Amino acid sequence: MNATPSRRSILKGAALGAAAIAGSFRVFDFEAAAAPASNGIFGYGVASGDPLGTAVVIWTRATPPCEGRQIATPGSGLGRPIFVRWEVARDQAFRHVIKRGGVLTSAASDHTVKVDVTGLRPYTRYYYRFHAEGETSPVGRTQTAPDERDRLHALRFGLVSCSNYTGGYFAAYRALGQRDDLDFVLHLGDYLYEYGNGADRSGPPELIGVRDGIPETETIDLTGYRLRHALHKADPDLALAHRQHPFITIFDDHEVADNAWNDGAVNHSPETEGSFQSRRKVAYQAYLEWMPFRLPEQRVIPHQGTRFFRSFSFGPLGDLSVLETRQNRTEQVNVPPFSTRGGGFIPIGAPEVEAQLNDPARHLLESEQMTWLKGSSRGKPWHLIGNQTVLSPLMIPGPLLNLPPTMTLINSDQWDGYRAQQTELINHIAAASNNVVVLTGDIHSSWAVEIPSKASADYTSVGVEFVCPSVTSDGFYELARTRVPAGTPPETVVATTRQLTGVLSGRNPWIKYLDGVGHGYALIDVTPDRVQADFHHTPVPTTAQPDPRVHKDVTTAYTTSWQTLAGTKKATLAAGPVGARPDEPA
């Protein structure tokens, strides 16, 4: 047959000539990276994000059609510019199109398309799609924020963090994508991980060769970060969640490198990997290209570097302040041999360590961001704060880390490692006229915590912190598996994990709920009377299913609910999961 070769056949044939095609670009697993491109111009799906009352960002990647043997795979720098038209409608059939336009995209933005659609109505559901070169994208569903000055609406959203691709299948994203009652998904960081497939790989060994990172090496350059973002956008479970709900996102460390601080990271070696500032710059570039993220107006609020922190209003109900805690943070306190770079579990009590932890010059937020945060959300019932690492004090007894019982440790990468700012923020929360709820990720486990006025048994609760589990990244259960003999039944490991988390809660009485076994997400529901967190987890590991993350069809299920009632500043067990929404978007 002399038919014109299809895009898919060209892609398969191109693998052999990848090096020649890539030219000076890094050679990578060509067919795997290009797979979504074989599904047409819009093979990487669609997404939306940063919903305001009258605007929302819509996103796609428009892969140019094949020309000869050149495939415009992510990060390759290949492909001609392509004009993309977009539409926003009130109905899924696009009979009532209310906004439309066009944009030219090119290799300069990795052929990503991002449009800030304005002039929309508050608390309204919309549908959107893209067109180019005779092809049409999947239809995305999105909605604007419930932000009307004098009208109270429901507010419900998913809370997620820490989605390591090699750590397992994204059951939490699929479960969120199947829900029809969310206003948005709040992602608190570690949307992707920079690790390679070698010694630095993280996740179940059963998925080696089955669910590998692309590129196969650690991401250190623009090509690598673009490819890693593309890999995540191509995941069907994450693609479903993006297609169904707008996301509000912020990066943590792994979008660049592990335990990053202002001029370095644990796994960055300038001698072999070049300037950390250069690495971070391209990581941020890829993040802004591949995420439906609206960069805030840079001139309005003082900041250092690029301003990523921003706020969202939900009418008379409350506000959400989203922090950014990596770009300008002071390097973590290190205590060799416990930690040598980037912080970690360090013993406290020694005068020289205490002096560093209490140093007011050390900061996690730059001073301008702290000033902005303290001036945010006044006169409304609820102030929600999206935050990367645990704010509440966490005292870790030595025996939990096989150390002497006289030893107490903290994680210096969390707010505990920046005590002056930690105290400043906790004191501000205590003095706030409204109710403050801190929403946190990073620690790969589920928590309901009363933020204590001081780290002692006679504390006063000044607010509540809800911490979501990881989507896939190793948690307490996986850590416990490494500390028991090989072949120990999963049921025993689960019991050991719960014993360890019980000891941790006993040492920190402000922890009211802690689960270190399940992965998944938290559902946050806000009313004038309370904020409730419903935790949804993957199955508890058993001998029949030792690691649920390795099963493609595993799903999450409701586990428990915790709440904070307006005016109490305390965390209490809720009667059950949230019910139907009191109202729906138009």
Automatic annotation (TrEMBL):
It holds the Pfam family PhoD_N. Transmembrane segments: none annotated. Residues 157-535 form the PhoD-like phosphatase metallophosphatase domain. CDD domains: MPP_PhoD. Residues 45-144 form the Phospholipase D N-terminal domain. InterPro entries: Metallo-depent_PP-like, PhoD-like_MPP, PhoD-like_sf, PhoD_N, Phospholipid_Metab_Enz, TAT_signal. This is Alkaline phosphatase D family protein. It comes from Kibdelosporangium philippinense.
